[in-house]
Write a structure and sequence with these properties.
The protein is an all-alpha fold. The chain has one domain. It is globular and about 60 Å long. Helix content is about 70%, strand content about 0%. Helix 1 packs across helix 6, helix 4 runs parallel beside helix 8 and helix 6 crosses helix 8. The chain has a two-stranded antiparallel ribbon. Strand 1 and strand 2 form a beta hairpin. About 40% of the residues are buried.
Length: about 280
């Protein structure tokens, strides 16, 4: 292939770590470049997030006003920050809209993914982190800026809040990816994942803290959801960390729980993928 200035990342036996990191980085960069081409969609999505930000913010502020200025332990500034930063994180975390795996299973293109040297879970995770990086640069800022212009927002006062928030956002992206991968992987058995995807869309926003803070629910229900499901770690945990809803020790504990769920969901995604591959082999696919 003379004249082509291209290189393909490969894994060398003598340099497995360096090659693996280089490959993962190349896949993440390709995910970043892919989503960077959808500039009109980016602008439209940011506008939509801002519109719904106003609706959510006014509703929650009305709830707080009817409860002597606090609701679920949040004051008005914390609630406004919860809403607008949450709108900025919605695309970054990527709870909705990802059907790449299910589509490739339905069309049979997944066979090409299984022939590649990089496992599908690793490849899709790298691309999703690239999407997350693009979202932080383009979709996170506009809602937060608009919210700061029209509402008083809470600013962190503890030095550890900002780095802990950054770690929490990264864990939210990884946990969200694991959940979405598992929902998409149902197509291996169902042939079409539209039903599970619809159920995921309806349930994830509510249990992740998108529609309202989970702290507005009874304490026993909030704790049950937080401990038994990974969904609060997708939005509720990073937002609670940022608005400093809890003391520092509890903040760190929530992020630790979030990390546990992120590892569990990615491990489950890998296990389900291996089961699906054996099923495809048995069926001759």
């Amino acid at each position: 292939m003379d004249g082509l200035d291209a290189s393909v990342p490969t894994i060398f036996p003598r340099r497995p770590v360096r090659s693996s990191v280089a490959t993962f980085g190349a896949l993440a960069w390709s995910g970043f470049r892919r989503y960077a081409t959808y500039r009109t969609a980016m602008a439209a999505g940011s506008f939509t997030n801002v519109v719904f930000g106003f609706l959510r913010c006014y509703v929650l502020l009305a709830v707080a006003a009817g409860a002597a200025g606090r609701a679920g332990g949040y004051d008005a500034r914390q609630l406004a920050t919860f809403v607008w930063v949450g709108q900025g994180l919605l695309y970054v975390v990527g709870i909705w809209g990802w059907t790449d795996l299910a589509d490739r299973i339905r069309t049979g293109d997944i066979a090409a993914d299984l022939l590649r040297p990089v496992p599908p879970v690793t490849a899709y995770l790298a691309a999703d982190l690239g999407r997350c990086g693009y979202g932080m640069l383009t979709r996170f800022g506009p809602p937060v800026l608009v919210g700061a212009l029209f509402f008083p927002l809470a600013t962190p006062v503890r030095w550890q809040t900002v780095p802990l928030f950054a770690v929490s956002v990264l864990l939210a992206v990884i946990g969200s990816f694991g959940c979405r991968y598992l929902v998409n992987a149902t197509a291996y058995w169902l042939g079409d994942a539209r039903g599970p995807l619809m159920f995921w869309t309806l349930g994830s926003g509510m249990l992740a803290g998108l529609y309202f803070p989970l702290r507005l629910l009874p304490d026993w229900l909030t704790v049950t959801i937080w401990v038994t499901t990974p969904l609060p770690g997708l939005l509720q945990t990073p937002l609670d960390v940022l608005v400093e809803r809890d003391p520092p020790g509890r903040q760190a504990g929530l992020v630790a729980l979030q990390a546990v769920w992120a590892v569990i969901m990615v491990a489950l995604a890998q296990r389900v993928q291996r089961r699906a591959e054996r099923r495809l082999v048995v069926q001759g696919g």
